[in-house]
Every structure is written in C-alpha cells, then in structure tokens.
Amino acid sequence: MICFNVPPCTGNEMKYIAEAVASHKICGDGAFTKKCSAWMEERFHAHKVLLTTSGTTALDMASLLCDLRPGDEVILPSYTFSSTANAFVNYGARLVFVDVRPDTMNIDETKIEAAVTDRTKVIVVMHYAGVACEMDAIMAIARRHHLLVVEDAAQAVMSSYHGKPLGTIGDFGCFSFHETKNYSMGEGGAILVNDPACVERAEILREKGTNRARFFRGQVDKYTWVDIGDSFLPSELNAAYLWAQLEMADEINADRLKSWQAYRGAFADLEKRGFVQLPVIPEGCVHNAHMFYLKCRDLEERTALIQFLRDRDILAVFHYVPLHTAPAGLRFGRFAGEDVYTTRESERLVRLPLYYKLTAEDQAKVIRAVRDFYKV
Ligand SMILES: *Cc1c(COP(=O)(O)O)cnc(C)c1O
Predict the structure, then answer these.
(1) Is 277 in contact with 341 (CB distance < 8 Å)?
(2) Which of 40, 254, 335, 338 could tie 49 with a disulfide, CB 3.0–4.6 Å?
(3) CA 113 to chain centre
(4) Domain ranges of the chain
C-alpha cells in the first residue's frame, strides 16, 4: 500500500521528548517552545511567532485579534478548509466567498475588490499547496479600503512571495503543524503577529486572558486577568517533536521538492497531450512542495483515476468541497460574483502521495499507474 501521507519523522523526536520529560517542564512555553519560535522568527524574519495548539486555533487567535463586531464581513475563498471560515464565524462574522484562479486555486485577487462593502473588515487568503496568493495586489486592496489581512499559511511554511516568507506579509499569518503538513508536532500550529502593536494582546489571549507573559519578563510584579482569552499554547512534548523537524527543515523541504519535481517531469507529456493539467507556480513564488496535484478532464474521469489507483494499492485523494455549497457555508455566508472556477476546478483535482522520505520506487509505481490509466 502506498499511503497518501506519512507523518514526518527525522529520528531525533524521541530524544527531544525525553529531554522535555527529564526537565520536568512539560506544559507550554518551555525550552522547546522557545527554540521553535525563535527559529521561525529568525528564519522568516517574523516579528513575533507564538506556538498554538493547532492551525485552527492560530486562525482563531488571528480572528480574535481582528476584533470583529457582529455583522462584520470577511472575504475569503470558498475553496479552503472549514477552519479558515470557522475562525471568523466563531466570532460573529458573515462570510463573503470569492472565486479562485484556475491556475493556482488561490483566491482571485482581481475579484476581491468587487466583494468589498462598507461592512468588510478582513481579507483572509489561503496559500493553496504552499503557493502564494498575489499578495502585492491583495495588500494594495487592503490598504485602499483599510482592511486587515490574515494569511492562512497552514500549507505554506517555508514558501515565499517575491522573497517574503508566507505568513509574514499580512497582519497575521497562521501555520499548521498537523501531521498532514510539511513539518509536524502531531497537532499544533503557530501565529505570526506581524504588527508590533498586537503582540501584547496576542500573548494575553493565548494565556487565558492574563498578562502572564509580561510577568515572566519582569514587566509587572504580579499577573492578573486583563482581557478575554483562551488556552492556545501547546505542551512541550509536542514542541519537542516539532524541534526535531525544524532543525532539519531544509532537508525535509529539499526531499519533498525532489519528489514534486519528479512528478512534474513524469507528467509533462500528459499535459502537452491534453490529458491532465499540472500545478502552476507563478513568477516570484517559491513553494514548499506541500502537495502535488493533477487536474483530470472532469469529475467522472477523476473518480475513475482514484479507483484505478486504489485497485493498485495507491491512495490518491480529492480535496475541498467548496464551502459555499456546504450546509454551514450556506448558513454563514454568500458567494460574491459568479462561481466560474471554484466548483468546476475542485471537481477535477486529485492529489498524489507526497511526503518526506517517499521512496523513488514507490513514486515510480504511482507514476506508472497514472500513465497506465491514460494508456501512455
Ligand atoms: C491544515 C489546515 C488548517 C488547519 O490546521 P490544523 O492544524 O489541522 O488545525 C487550516 N487551513 C488550511 C488551509 C489547512 O490546510
């Protein structure tokens, strides 16, 4: 069986977890949490990085920091994960879905401005497959209309846009370290707080509404309840696992990119002959090989391909059902403009096995099977 995903493991995880246990510090914000956030701050030139319990709760924190009022509108793509939407619905926002571009499956920056109303507060972008949205255009729209920008960069750790690491361009960036992502801690995530004025509130929200972070820095002499909040910090055991990944981040990235390139090369002729479409990486975007997908000609062909691969013990999977067609999407949002590509393109897309340490032999089997399906 060739799995769709195998959670990344570099070999040092147990050693670091044992260190955390031996240090008798297994709650949040210990040595491993500090190492991980310092590494990300340095690597991504991020102003402040705070580890969270998931990508979902990083988005929840970003939403809280946007300070939404009931009736505020949030613009986002419909082609995304439920967490992108829930984070804002949880705090009272109405969702306004915008179509995606067929080449990257990212929100179509040319259709955003038409969706802005006087209730719009936030634009949420999601960098699909770790490939950047057109952030220059999007940040310009946000500036023109005084909107906040949240980057759902759950899939985009180590990707960049014109030299800027994804997650550091908007007001807030959100990473996921779920086991399905490039770097993992089982369940976990991080919020990048790019506006220095928001850091203190972010620390308070994350620590049950207390000013504990200031207390530990000696800035106040006792800590107390100062605001709303929740518990968004992960255990040191999870942070220790993540540290074993981050210290090998370049190796993991290179390994994934090698597999991605091998798929791309192997299917180039299928694309030329019109059987499939391959992912597009726009100029200025450096991606992290989070995902390799093909687009079949239609839904029926995709269903047949997935079954064909399954019969050969290869797990390939489709992806998001557009949120605006889901029961909660209908309840909490509306689609602005026309759904030209979101539904049509999502029905054609299939993701192939891609993970750290995918062997060349296994990948060759996947490639052979796809080519057999198209009889080439
Ligand atoms: C994985 C993912 C999330 C959620 O992250 P979790 O860590 O699983 O909570 C949110 N948005 C996108 C686009 C994702 O791919």
Answers:
(1) no
(2) 40
(3) 23
(4) 13-246, 249-373
Maximum CA extent, the chain = 72
CA of 59 to the centre of ligand 1 (A): 9
Q: Whose CA is nearest to atom 14 of ligand 1?
A: 154
- Entry field: residues in the chain: 376
pLDDT one-digit tens code per residue, 259-273: 999 999 999 999 999
The Cα–Cα gap between 292 and 279 comes to: 7
Substitution candidate for ligand 1 out of 176, 180, 183, 320 with most atoms within 8 A of CB: 176
pLDDT tens-digit profile of 212-225? Answer: 888 888 998 888 99
Distance 274 CA to ligand 1 centre (A): 32
Distance CA 277, CA 301 (A): 13
pLDDT digits (tens, 9 = 90+) for 146-159: 999 999 999 999 99
Under CATH, which architecture does the 13-246 domain have?
3-Layer(aba) Sandwich (3.40)
* Amino acid identity, position 337: G
Fold of 249-373: Aspartate Aminotransferase, domain 1 (3.90.1150)
